[in-house]
Every structure is written in structure tokens, then in C-alpha cells.
Design brief:
By secondary structure, the protein is α/β, with parallel strands linked by helices. It has seven helices and five strands; from the N terminus they run βαβαβαβαβααα. Helices cover about 55% and strands about 15% of the residues. The longest helix has 25 residues.
């Protein structure tokens, strides 16, 4: 599997550990940074991981920041990205099986190396079930996304475009 991985400075050390772990599991790893513990902004790396997944450069993504919360919020702003903060294996597995989660987010200041290994393993082994109830719920999530994307497009139109279309 092709896995995009990224972190901010707070997740850098865990990212480096997980790169080695993923390679040992025979996954292809796309490291999108950061490349040191120098302070950086998590949205930049969450966006890079999300875009890699959305554009098909990676099958799944992993993002690590201090708590996991900020990176999850940022990644979920990208249409078609379903990022979840997980600090237990049930959520990492179930997020994929029921919600088609495609980006796993973890807090580098919250969990340790062994738990991170377990989460990654559960996340990457899991498959979306395609059960009718999960498809129905995912369709509703996607409908919400479309509604707000459409509202933003209408707001972004210049006033002259609004008048000419009447």
C-alpha cells in the first residue's frame, strides 16, 4: 500500500519511527515532512497528506501533530478526505470499516511508539465494509460536503456574474 505520512515538529520523532515501521511492513512511504523538530505549522503538512490521498498519490495517509486534533481539523477541510484522530485500535479499524476513513491522525505527545504501531496496523489492515447502512451514512456526509462547497462557490462569484445570470 502507498502511504503518505506527515507531521509537524511535535510529531516528527514518531513520524520517523513509523516510516521505518511501514517500510518493514513492505508499504511504500511518501514522506511529506516536516524533516526536523524546528517549529512549523501543522496545517501545511495535514494539507499535503490529504492532497496526496485525494489526488491518488497515496492510498491512505497518516498525520501526526501534538494532540492530533489540529491536524485532523485541517485535513478534513479537503473534500473527499475523512481524517480521524485515533488513539485506540478499535477507532482506527472501525473508522475505516464504517466511515471509510482515509487519513489516520495521531497525537505524538499523546501516544507512544508501540500504540502507534498497533494503530497503524489496524488502520492499514481495515477495509470499508460497503454495508448499506455505512454507504447511506457516507452519502449523507458527502452531501453535506457538496452543499457547503456549492454555497462557497456562489459566495465567491463577483456581483456582476450574479446580475447577469438573472
Amino acid at each position: 500500500m502507498r502511504v503518505a505520512i506527515g507531521s509537524d515538529h511535535a510529531g516528527f520523532q514518531l513520524k520517523e519511527i513509523l516510516k521505518t515501521y511501514l517500510t518493514g511492513l513492505r508499504h511504500s512511504v511518501l514522506d511529506l515532512g516536516t524533516h526536523s523538530t524546528a517549529p512549523v505549522d501543522y496545517p501545511d503538512f495535514a494539507e499535503a497528506v490529504g492532497l496526496a490521498v485525494r489526488q491518488g498519490d497515496a492510498d491512505r495517509g497518516i498525520m501526526i501533530c501534538g494532540s492530533g486534533v489540529g491536524a485532523s481539523i485541517a485535513a478534513n477541510k479537503i473534500p473527499k478526505i475523512r481524517a480521524g484522530v485515533c488513539h485506540d485500535t478499535y477507532s482506527a479499524r472501525q473508522g475505516v470499516e464504517h466511515d471509510d476513513m482515509n487519513v489516520l491522525v495521531m497525537g505524538g505527545r499523546v501516544i507512544g511508539e508501540e500504540v502507534a504501531h498497533e494503530l497503524v496496523r489496524a488502520f492499514l489492515k481495515a477495509k470499508f465494509t460497503h454495508d448499506e447502512r455505512h454507504l447511506r451514512r457516507l452519502a449523507k456526509v458527502e452531501a453535506i460536503e457538496r452543499r457547503y462547497l456549492q454555497k462557497n462557490r456562489r459566495k465567491a462569484r463577483p456581483k456582476s456574474a450574479d446580475r447577469s445570470s438573472r
